[in-house]
Amino acid sequence: MINSNAFDYVRVLDKAADAAWIRNQVLANNMANINTPGYKRQDINFEGELERALGHSRYKTMDEKVAGVKDNRTLIRTYTDYSNFSYRVDGNNVDIDTENIMLAKNQLKYNGIMSCLTNEFTNLKTAMTGQ
Description:
Blueprint: H1 8-32, E1 42-44, H2 46-54, H3 62-68, E2 78-80, H4 96-129
């Protein structure tokens, strides 16, 4: 196979789409457990992991940074948010309004990622066919 970095952005965008999809599942799980006593909301921190993976060298171009991102550096990790905090008597810290806002924000992010993926494939097709 030809050694090329043509799919570096596609690979990172694919990982970002996976993270957005998983976040949708995590947020839906939070909403499903809104009445579970003691349940603590969960989330993922993919953006922080990606920023850390891209930000190792500030003297590189974005193309070089994206090419250097390895899948093991951008792991999608679930964490418990504010595990010691609860404003409810039953110990649950899920707020339905917050979860709905986070879900809408995540859906917009997912749609943007999918649009970027479509543009990347269009650019690759144009480069291959010259059209």
